[in-house]
Amino acid sequence: MKLLIIKNILIHAALVPFYFFATKEVALMPNDKLDTLLLFVGLIVIAPITSNFVYKYKDAISGKAIIWGHITTLFSILVIGMLFVTLDVLLIYMIGNVLVFRLAIVLFWIAVVTFDFADFLTRNDSRHA
Predict the structure, then answer these.
(1) In 3-state terms, what secondary structure has residue 30?
(2) Average pLDDT over residues 116-124
(3) DSSP 8-state class, residue 32
(4) CB–CB of 53/80 below 8 Å?
(5) pTM score, two decimals?
């Protein structure tokens, strides 16, 4: 559990500076290319979301397998977060601060993070049952 919490703190700590980086990068892009970037980011986010939701900690039997699970989910959740941040920045830049879109991104982010915890806790519960 300690590694799970550390992993999620590291992910969130990395996403804060990435938000500012993404904001600057999007502002530098030509406006006629933003639609293409929005489409690309919206499509590519499906791959890490799928890999994150497919992975199950319950299949990790040894301590080494659990560590590799943390590493794998760290990267997939970090990429999901980076793509969500980019989507948020693009949507704000292109259409403004629309609460419905921003709320949907935040709620989906919460689902991604809580799934990681729920999957890990389910693994521990199934071992004691």
Answers:
(1) coil
(2) 81
(3) G
(4) no
(5) 0.88
